[in-house]
User: Fold these one by one.
Assistant:
Number 1:
Amino acid sequence: MRLLHVIRLLMVLPVLLGLVMAALLVFAARQDRLKLQQLGEAQAITFESINLMSLGREIVRHPEERRASRQWKISNQHMTELLSRIDEAGYQERVERMGREQRILDDLFQRISLSGIPDKTALSQGLLQRLESQMALHVQTLAAEAGNLLRDIQRQQAETRQRIDSLIIALLLVLTFIVALFIGLNGRRLLHRLQRMRDATTQIGAGNLNYRIGDTQRDELGEFSRAFDTMTSNLRQVTASRDDLQREIDARVQAQLELQEYKNHLEELVAIRTRELVQSNRQLRETQFAMDRSGIAIQWLDADSGRLLYVNDQTGAMLGYSLDELLLLCIGDICPDFPRERFKQLVMPCREQGYIRLESTYRTKGGRRFPVEAVLYYQPPQPEVADRFIAFVTDISQRKAAEQALLQAKEAAEAANRAKSVFLSNMSHELRTPLNAILGFAQIMARDDTLDKTHRSRLETINRSGRHLLSLINDVLEISRIEAGRTTVQNEVFCLADTLMAVEDMIRARAESKSLRFVSECGGELPRYVVGDAHHLRQVLINLLGNAIKYTEQGVVKLRLQAAEGFIRFEVADTGVGIGADDLPRIFQAFYQTEAGVAKGEGTGLGLAISHEFVRLMGSEIKVSSEPGKGSVFTFTLSLPEANAPAMTVEPSRVIGLAAEQPTVRVLVVEDNADSSELITLLLSNVGFEVRAVENGQQAIECFESWQPQFIWMDMRMPVLDGYQATKVIRSLPGGGQVKIAALTASAFREDRQAILDAGCDEMLSKPVDEYRLFRIMGDLLGLHYRFAEQGATASAGQTAVDAGLDLSQLSPTLRAELADAAELLDADVVQAIIERLRPDFPEQAKTIAAWVDAYRFDVVAKLCRGIAD
């Protein structure tokens, strides 16, 4: 019986021990749940303390905000509830300290919040900062107490769990002993079942709460095993709940750390953005300062009403208003040109183009008006902002004044240029008119066979001096034409070889007269006929080579030519005195002469200026390099395309009368200068024309009406009524449309030809009068036929003929070329020198050439020389 009781007791004891362990486990689970709740509340206290600190800072920075006050009350109440839920028996002292810190914080908050109440005395900024510092200190203390509370709870939880675990282990050991005893008593089967119980205890001790005994017998040990498995299951659930709670705590801690990192990052971003805003504001202030100092007024305008929305300081300084006064005005108040209705018209074009630039007038506060230039940019409407303009306005009073001054200066320059043209025209008329008489009568007198050698020599001197004076006049007029932009290039086909040969022969003769060596070099094959301005090219080469001869006392003068792809490079080099560095920039100025030129006492200082402009007109530029004492080099390159040879024509010789079958022609000479009138009357009368002469345009009209001439030589500058008006009147009279009228003018400007033709003239003849051209014009207009000197033949005015008695083929090609070049240049001195060289060997040719020269027919001499093949 005792053994049975013992066995029964042994069977009951495990059940009791199991119940005790289950109770212990339930108690442990409840303690864990309580501790975990307290841990969460302690953690929440930490979060609330940080939140209270943030709300306190917000109150300090924005005391007027009420949202932070409401959140503070909610957080403070939550903090009080959290403290009340903590077990005061175990943590009463610590909870009291945290409550005290909470009350201090609440007091600080109430003191800080007073600064945002308008009817309360606001705290000073320094006091707010100190209160904020104190609040931060107490929040740190509260957070520290909460942390200590958290550690105390965790420590007590660990101690409680350790005691319960020790008790459970002790109970398990007792249970193991009982089971061992039961096994020993119950035998092998019981031992096996106990072995499973021991294994379960070992697994549970190792932390494997998933292990199950699995005893299904319906005795006490089986029930115990099932109870043990149930206990293990419950323990597993409690442990899982504890683990979940721990993971939640860890997640909250991690979230808090992440929140702190985010907060730190956010504060860093705010600091960076604050620095950027400060820098942007500084740049904006600097930009506005620069705009104000640059004199640009900036204005924001309402697109609908034109009201000023914003102005900078420069606008106020420009208009004399204060900024507040300007913001009460519209654009029409300061800009009378743009009232509201007209201002609205700017919206559409400005919206389409993006901006508008215009000039207008502004009115100051005192009523003064001044011109401005404005650029308006359109800004489309934006959220909460209507469309508007931004205007950049600049005072252009000085610019307008400068433009007006420039306009006045331009008008003055044009007036001066017109006065200069009138002066040159007058000078041309006043100089050429007497020269016309001098040269004309000198040539007529030279034809008188009764003159002795002395008188003839003196006449030749008169001719040479007159031609030299004419050359100087032409130079002055040519440089005037260049300055006025009237000189043009006349491109035509010419023989380059003949032109160069003529220049070389002339220069060679001058060089030999000074015992200088002249060298002509050519690189490449030059085309014989080219398209260009032969007259200007010849004048440039003669000027440059003539200067080289003039300023070289010993050594050599060279003309180098290089042809390549339609271009020819000309180079004139000498070993003369050279040009100083100070003179080089000015040698192409009109009338400028170097010291060497002044010492020579020759020339007018126009040769290089004319040559420079001629080369520029032909599309190039003269370049010069020189070294004093060693000589100079002038170079230029021209485009001279190769061309076919032109047809050669030769003009007939001097007119001595009308053809036998030619009826009498009535010619009226209208000339106010008595000498010129007498000269032309004499030339026409000697040929056989019926001539009358009058002094002005009014007399010409009266003579035309009474006499009905067939041809009129009309001087264009006369008193009473000039040639322009007289011609127009005659053309309007009966028969005025049939009469031929040719103008006599001393003008050297080609531009005057069109004005003369527009007045009603059929042709024009420049003074000094070219005898051959005078008869040629009349012959072409009236269809006349003439008899020519030494020919005895009759030819029409347009017919080409050569004096049969003049044979120049016996002359050397060089001499013919030299004679032709001198004749083309109207260089009477060189032509006369050649004539004297011809007299011993070719007396007849010399006499005939002299007769042509006396008749002022250099063109016939040149064409006779050019027309003979080598």
Number 2:
Amino acid sequence: MPELARLSAQIEIAAGHVTPYWPLTRFIAANPLQGLEDQPFEHAARTAASLFGARAWPAAEVLKAALADGRIDGAILAEVAARHGQPGAAAPGALDVPGNAQRAAPPSAVNRALIRWLAAFLDEGQAAWPMPGREKGLWRAVRALLPLDAEVPKGTEAAALDADPLRAIAALIADVPEEYRTVLLTRHLTALAGWAGFVKWRAQERVKPAATLADLLALRLFLARQFEEAPAAAPTPAESPAAAIWLEAWEETWRRGLAARLAAKAAAAAPKPEAQLVFCIDVRSEVLRRHLERTGPWETLGFAGFFGAAVAVRPFGEDAAYASCPVLLQPRHVVPEVAAPGAEDAAAARLAGLKRLKGAKGGLRALKESLAGAFGFVEASGAAFGAAMVARTVAPGGFGGAVKRLAERVVPPAPTTPRVALACDDGVTTGLSPAEQVATAEGALRIMGLTTGFAPVVVLCGHGGQAVNNPFVAGLDCGACGGHRGGPNARIMAAILNDAAVRQGLAARGIAIPAATVFLAAEHDTTTDRLAIWDDPRADAATVARLRGDLEAARAKATAERLARLPNSKPGHAVAAAERRAADWAEPRAEWALARNAGFIVADRSFTRGLDLEGRCFLHSYDWRADKEGAALEVILTAPMVVAEWINTQYYFSTVDNAVFGAGSKVTHNVVGGFGVMQGNGSDLMTGLPAQSVMSATGVPYHEPLRLMTVVQAPLARVEAVVAKHRILQTLFGNGWVALLVADPETGRFLRRNRDGSWRDETPAATPEHHLIAA
């Protein structure tokens, strides 16, 4: 029917204001204002204030502190204010807004009832007794049970509404004027934007049991009618217009400082590397890379941490595979982990242990949740659990080691390897064809700019983090790959690149890998800076041994640097302290993760080698000389850079308004359904980062909320051609979500893109006046 099609379109428009929320176990960084990126940043900020009652600019006291300690240069602040025609905005008093609005939202019976039903329906196994009828879908299931909800007045009236959610919505808003309907639907969805975001994600991923935003709106509109409650307008905090100018000055201070350091750096020839290590572009890799390169003849490169292997991985002993690649990609192949050659007996023992452990866990959970057995279970096990609690509190490191040793006795380790070649198990095809392996290898090598000059050993370093008793632990892993570690991808790509047939195919395509070069896989634990390398007998043992020794030396320095920035960090052995923090169940900050990220640099390593970038820049390797057509640059700017923008905006908004865009304090978190957290016993789903991930103390941010600046080392015309080809890049650069600086190697000039597409020369210490260059 035309009216239902129109209603569906109105829901789609309203849903554009809601960002999908990935569950805790499949963490993905996301811009909470993703649906507003088609607007200039300043407009989106005002929209956010009206929709969510959120602050979109750093608080006045934060900006004043940045000016006081020099992070905002006073001269640059005056310059920016004058450029905007508001010279008075540079005065600290311009940030003060009298009579700031009260931010507390009025109590809502609709919200309370809706949260209860959504938590029950969307539960992912945390509840002992699942909600009945979930297979019908959200609206149909709750509609059938509403008559039993004593807290909802006249819940029986739900039966009078159509079981189809769209038809139910049409009936519920029949008296609403057509021109107001989209606004009304938007207000209802943004009233609990976190829960709506999770429903939106589930609908996009077709997760069962099914729940759509139409289901959610039908239920919410029905509850609103029963409680006679209209969606309340979000309380808007008053913010000074000067805050935007101060933020721009803060950004300019940092950006110009970075450009000056890049321009002043002398191009020093690096020693011929005995090994090359390819790290993820993650800002945390920069610290270890810098210290490692200072220890010996090692060269590091940066590449997206899935290493071009867009696959689903099926872990050894598991039936299901998971997508081990950025969420922008859909894996087309499943790669299983199988027993390594000669390790069949160990593999069989591990499988048996996994089976025993699964049975024991099921029995333990059944006993804990049994009405009859729960009290006896507590009586019998209380002493053991109490002793464990004391041990993990007093000596977390020792307790963690003991648990690991016990786990290895129950489930003994076994060497495994990814089976990359095509195979068929029980009618299921896994692996990649020979042609697909060659194409995957070529794409990865060309994008990272490693097509010549291979060292005898090349180490592909995936990464992951670790923490205990932390619902956000997946957020310490890759920020793009759904909370998965990069080690499996490194092993897959190493296996592909070591294959003789693949190398033959690469040679036919112009990439000749020396016969003596061996690719190894490794995984960088960003919490402890330990880098574990999977051995390969083909690699030169002496080289690998020297590399391991230098990695340990670099680890000690990198860990000391990182721990010096963490609160409650005691002087002493940094590596031991980092391992203790990772094992401590009471530690709210095992690491800072990607806090303080501000730059994305696309360049050859010689452009940044030797510079201390303080773990603030994503570093993606790029050889502009080998990319004449700009194909590699196009991939880098439209995939890894977009993900970096998601990460940057998540950190930005989680910092400027942690209550709305973040997750609040971990102290009052309540894990719900296994997929998210609430504040207390009932709140919106908190979709951002906890306060402990971005704040060093109450009201004192550790993360500097600066928008991302992308620096590209390439000819200007090539960058322009890529931007002109992609709407997403025009949107991000043109609307002020990301700044773009081109370091043109052919002219030696540093050129900044204006929002209107024109360019201005910002070559440090060379051109005092910034003049426009025609777009």
Number 3:
Amino acid sequence: MLRHLDTSPRGLTEAQAGERLVRHGVNTVLAWRTESWPRRFVHSLRDPFTAVLLCLGLVSAAVAAWGTACVILSLVVVSCVLRTSGEYRADRSMAGLRDLVATTATVLRRSDPDAPGQAREIPVGELVPGDVIRLGPGDLVPADVRLLRANGLTVHQAVLTGEAVPVAKEAIDTPHPPPYDGIFQQPQLCFLGSAVASGSGTAVVVATGTRTRFGSAFGGPGAGPGARDGGARREASAFDPSVLGVSRVLIRFMLLTPPLVLMANAAVRGRGLETLPFAVAVAVGLTPEMLPVIVTLCLARGAARLARMHGVIVKRLPALHDLGAVDVLCLDKTGTLTQDRPVVDRALDAHGNHDPDVLHWAAVNAWWTLQLAELPAPDALDEALLEAAGPDGEEYDGVAALPFDPVRRLATAVVRDPARLGVHTVVVKGAVENVLERCALEQGERERLLALAAREADGGLRLLAVATAERRARTGTGTGACTPADERGLTFRGFVVLGDALAPTAADALRALTDRAIAVKVLTGDHPGSAAGTCRALGLDPGEVWTADRIDALTDAELAEAVRRTTVFARCTPEHKARIAAALRTAGHTVGFLGDGVNDLPALRAADVGIAPLGAVDVVREHADVVLAEKDLTTIDHAVTEGRYGGVAITTYLRITLSSNLGNVIAMLAAGLLLPFLPMLPAQVLAQNLCFDAAQLAFAYERPHPDAVRRPTGLRPRGLLRFITGFGALNAVADLATFGILALALHGPDGMDDAAVFHSGWFTENLTTQALVMLLLRLGRRGAEGRRAPSPVVRAAAALAVAGLLLPLSPLGPPLGMTALPVLYYVLLAAVLALYAAALKAARARYDRRAGGLVAGPAHGCTVAQSSNLR
């Protein structure tokens, strides 16, 4: 390897390093860059709803409807500014997180070819293939390296493989031949993204940047520095197709409405292009102008609340909506359901019975190995032993120790009991096979103990074997007083069984997620038994555990069916995780994925919303949509709840606005055919829309009842279309009833010739019926229960009704073409409103029953909550 890389154990010269830095590039997987505010603003115009509004504003300007054009374009600007500002702040917060990663490495460099190598710290970006580096406890491996020397070296590879325990590494001369447990298990190789748990080593850099295994998972050499997508385009999230679906419905209506208005007026009333401004006003009236503002305001407020109260950074605002729609959460076991450390489960004697004496001797070994070998810190297994048994070794005098050796797979301590002079006790613990072969056992007994260990480990638990021997005291201290020859003829004591330490909040968080109708899928590279045991300990039924080989045998269609009924997938590679996430989406689920290692990156891309903790590797944090302050499922529950509040507000706005607008458009088309004048002047349409839109802003500030966010929320275009069609027709009936009142009750058969009276009456009726709709069709409307002050929606609806009643009577009435109405009209209007309210409540109750106990299920517009909670 040294010859291949044209280097030596003394390291590269400065000249060689400089030349290779130019040739291979800097040692970074991604060249971070923060997108500028103006670029983000331009990109926000790509939002489908915003694009529809922008086109309508330009059309309004083309037909000289300057007031409408100004209002619409102002809403576009406000929406884009809100969205851009929120995402820009999130990106700046992420820039601060990037400073948390390691930035230097210890490298051997020479001033000239004949000089000795000098160790010095350099930025990791300056490492090149052929550099010789030194590794110590706590160091992050800065590149892919091949070990030249190692002393008790173990590394954490969880970010690459998902393994919870450190992996032993050694500087063997030749790789293990295949079949072997993958490239990451080759003992002579360490990889970028892993961290040194214990021991030390010297290694030569074999790959840097995007040519590392880490970089290959991120995007490979083709991605290059500065690639934003890691060489693969991110899948569209759940929010994108739903928004596009609703946008297509609106665009069809808007493209169809103006020609219908023009043709109907030309055929029936003989009007020409003078009705074009009115036709455009009708199309604008159908559009939910405030939707981009409502969506952005709801999500931005939710993101700000999460950042302030829970330390959650939402990098992409639509991702918060996706979180509210998530009904399946995929996660790894290690570090999420469990902590990144083992704990002692039990101690067994040679017959499988509980024996605390075995744990005592294991702790004696751990204590004196740590004390005499001068290790910087105990490894994870020793920590677990000492935590369970305490510092039992203090009652002895330590004589000598041999620390854990990856080749021998043993650790040995020699201690002296002060009460027994002249006798030393050798205490050995380590891998079962290695300890048993050093014990004085018959072959049959050894095979029985191996079988017992295999049964105990079948559940994915880890076992340490413990043995002791008494030796005559020898002179000398330190490791020289203990040799591998002392590890022979031992007396077998028993096994210490270790499992994974459960995350303290995991059980409660899993119950909370279940209560919110979110199914949890565990995707892990760990042992199937270990994964199943952890799930059972947390109250999650694992059912039948699937392993990677079963997944490989299925087609995509078969996997999409299988993932519905399977909870735990073990021995998963990154490709398996991504395939499972994609299969869940194919099966119609909205998928969230929580990951922190580079092995989680493909699945993070494949999910609807990618979630990463603050401690995740930097490339995963960069690609995640949501970054958590802590790797805690409780924090995800808070984020999901906030997303659902936003989803309820957005869905409520769409349902109410579109149904009201559709009713108005139907009534306008009918009135245009019946009346000798335009049913509403463009200025009146604009004033009505302004009043209604201003009131609708209240939905962004409404906090629905908690029962309204117990189920996933999501836009369903077909269900939404059915809802707005039904309730829009009901609204049109109320409008037509108002026409009858105006025509017959007030002025007789010729009453329809009074344009000012008609415009005033319909304007008042429109705003008051819309106020009723806001109150009776909103979701989770008991959010203010228990509070004396009315909710923001109640106040806004009241203000809208007052505006509808008083505006025709105010000084603004005549300039808008409206006049005062007789008292009798208000009496008859009250009767119409009462009947309309009763019809709305009856239709709402019928709709809820047909939705199968939901306000709107997956096929009915959105998934929100049980209708009994929204009466």
